[in-house]
Design goal:
Organism: Floridaenema fluviatile BLCC-F154
CATH architecture: 4-Layer Sandwich
CATH topology: Metallo-beta-lactamase, Chain A
CATH superfamily: Ribonuclease Z/Hydroxyacylglutathione hydrolase-like
InterPro entries: RibonucZ/Hydroxyglut_hydro
Structural class: alpha/beta
Low-confidence stretches: none
Number of domains: 1
Protein name: MBL fold metallo-hydrolase
Number of strands: 20
Pfam families: Lactamase_B_3
Length: about 260
């Protein structure tokens, strides 16, 4: 299994001989609702779009997960799996093979990888977006991805999970609280599913941010503090910190895992 972090929440997961592009923001700026004055993310140069993508996987319909400018650059014939909100967006962009997964539904990718949607982040008053469990069918290795730190208790049913990709620090706003939950929730999910490896997501990488919102955002926690919490709780989980663009082979040992099927 190989993982490449492409900044922010964007990942290339190579599992079961397939290349899965997750929540890609690779070209152009990141702006919510055309309000650059409020928040804008940008790079000095665009990221190269990976070749031979087998699947695009989208956890949410928001711009930092289903980035319109990036999706317009990708081949519309690439299959897409996404939350209902993300699936609606890519259908409107002209993608030809789109599967909307609701919670607990499973998508089979060429009998190599099973992808199960699990409850993820609450967006707005009622919409719960997706996290994902990806299982390599030949080896049984599993990857869990949730980009805001909202972890469903149902994960206990498929523990242990080998790789967890989730925030390990908090990003908070005054009066609102944490919009990215990492410090407490990352430890809770580690205790719940006993991963061999954890990797942080939602961090900036090579990105520069501007806008009024930055004056109020507060980051809480560090990777070293999280490693110390794992040790204090007798968890042997390794925390890897890839640099943007680095393709890393994840060191895993085979162990017994449960099926996603009920």
């Amino acid at each position: 299994m190989y993982l490449t972090w492409l900044d922010s929440n964007s990942w290339l997961i190579e599992i079961g001989g397939k290349k899965i592009l997750v929540d890609p923001w690779l070209v152009g700026p990141l702006v919510f609702g055309n309000q650059e004055w409020l928040f804008k993310g940008s790079r000095k140069s665009d990221r190269q779009i990976p070749e031979n993508i087998d699947l695009i996987l989208l956890s949410q319909g928001l711009e930092d997960h289903a980035h319109p400018e990036t999706l317009k650059q990708l081949n519309r014939n690439i299959p897409v799996v996404g939350s209902p909100s993300a699936a609606k967006l890519v259908q409107e962009l002209g993608y030809q093979q789109v599967t909307a997964l609701t919670h607990d539904e499973i998508f089979n990718l060429n009998n190599n990888v099973e992808i199960k949607a699990v409850p993820g982040s609450l967006i707005g008053p009622t919409t719960v977006e997706n996290g994902y469990l990806l299982k390599e069918l030949e080896s049984g290795f599993t990857v869990y991805y949730e980009p805001h730190g909202s972890h469903s208790p149902s994960l206990k049913e498929v523990a242990p999970i080998d790789v967890v990709i989730t925030p390990i620090i908090d990003l908070a706003l005054p009066l609102v609280g944490s919009i990215i939950k990492g410090t407490k929730s990352a430890l809770e999910v580690a205790q719940m599913v006993k991963p061999q490896v954890m990797l942080p997501t939602a961090a900036g990488g090579d990105i520069e941010f501007d806008g009024l919102l930055l004056k109020f955002l507060k980051a809480v926690g560090t990777t070293e503090e999280f490693r110390a919490k794992l040790a204090e709780n007798n968890l042997a989980t390794k925390v890897l910190e890839p640099q943007p663009g680095d393709r890393i082979e994840v060191p895993l040992e085979r162990r017994v895992t449960n099926s996603f099927a009920a």
